[in-house]
Amino acid sequence: MKLTTKLLLIALSCAAGLLVGAFFSNALKRKRDFFSELLAFIDSVASDITFRQEGIRSVASNFKSTCKSKLKNVLDEYEQAPDSIPLLSFLPKNESKVVADFFCGIGKSDLITEKAELSNVRSTVEELNTKYKEKCSTRCAMFLKLGLLAGLALGILII
Amino acid sequence: MLNKILPHKIVNIIEQKLNYEKLYELRFRTNRKATVNYDGKFYYLSEKGLSNSLFDGIEVDKQFLNDIIVKASDYSLYTVNRNICNGFITISGGIRIGIAGEYVWESGEIKTVKNFDGLTVRIPHEVKGCSGKILKTIADNGIHSSLIISPPGCGKTTMLRDLSRQISARSPNNNILLIDERCEIAASSNGIPQLDVGNNTDIISNCTKEAAILRGIRSMNPRVVITDELATKEDIEAVYSAVCCGVGVIASVHAADQYDLMNKVFFDHAIKHRLFTRYIVLSDKPTMGTVSGIYDENFSEVYL
Q1: Residue A57 and residue B84: Cβ atoms within 8 Å?
Q2: What is the CATH T-level fold of the domain B2-122, as seen in this structure?
Q3: Which residues of A, range 57-76, sit inside 8 Å of B by Cβ?
Q4: Which has more pLDDT, B108 or A85?
Q5: Structure pTM?
Q6: Beta pairing partners, B248
Q7: What is the pLDDT of residue B304?
Q8: Which CATH architecture best describes the domain B132-296?
Q9: ipTM of this predicted complex?
Q10: Can you say whether residue B115 is alpha, beta or left, with left for phi > 0 and alpha for psi between -120 and 50 degrees?
Q11: What are the residue boundaries of the structural domains of chain B, listed by start?
Q12: Helices (DSSP H) in chain A: which residue ranges?
């Protein structure tokens, strides 16, 4: 096997390893971004309840334009059918249920109960957001490094 | 619009078994049978349409009532909390949902209403030309300040809407200020009246009569003010201030007839000082909107 072929193989396996690392890293980032935006959305709803009172559909519609995460899809679905938000496949079942319950229950209680419920769900989402932020800061770089190293090791084994 | 707030089952019955034009009111009470005011008479709402038998009626539960209110608020109950505290929500098309339930008080103020017990869904109908009989006596030779008297459900709001339309149509000089406190007369949605109240009519909705008259007369320079359901001392005082500005006021009040009106505490002063120069008594016999009498400021009958 020629040296250039060997180097090319190592480079390819490193790139493949990096891609695998990036895949795991992005899965975490996706969850982090989702909960971070959900938290901001909850704050927008809270502010709408206190001040503007335009309604959740209006808040969702305005918020959607600034959304970069999967929350955009959820808000789309909420606008179409507020009663039935499907479980989100990229989240664990219990976390997906928190999101679905939030969207299915939002706007359906009287003012006093709504504020209390929103405050409860906010603290749950904040916990999840913090969890994924911490996971991201410790694991995302690690996944990339591990991926690169695994790719390198695989390349060496192949040649 | 009803299909946006009512379950498919009820909407199907209305669409397939009833004539919407004759449907005036739907009443839902928790764990009891739904009733309907159809062509002026009440029936139980059944799978087959209307029924006089309680046994045939469709029973509704608490969730049914909650769903109607949630849908009526477009899934944002908090946006209509102020209206709920006042006992009603008005949705697009002028459909008014009266609410009975458990009031929550805090520091002497109603904070909200929970555990809805009963809903009355009132469906407005335009009856163009229904005010023809009283129009002459009110609007010929200048505008007479007039009070339309009747018990609930006899067509006062429909009459006021048609008067607004007809007086407005008579001349471009007839600028009307319509004070639609409960959004029932013009049923404005996003600033656009859903029902015909005339070309020369300005609408102030969701505002107390007192505040609307004060601001409206100053800023809109109306010739006539039309408003519904005078009920409080403040309402009468607001009408006084309008009449004193030289503006004709056409309003309505809940009372059985002119004698009943005379017994109303707040109206004593208004009657004595001839605030209104025409009293129109409406009845639902033989049909809704029947003019049973027109009287002048001395309660002498005005013959047409």
Answers
A1: no
A2: Beta-Lactamase (3.30.450)
A3: 57
A4: B108
A5: 0.78
A6: B224
A7: 66
A8: 3-Layer(aba) Sandwich (3.40)
A9: 0.78
A10: left
A11: 2-122, 132-296
A12: 3-47, 56-64, 71-80, 93-105, 111-135, 141-158
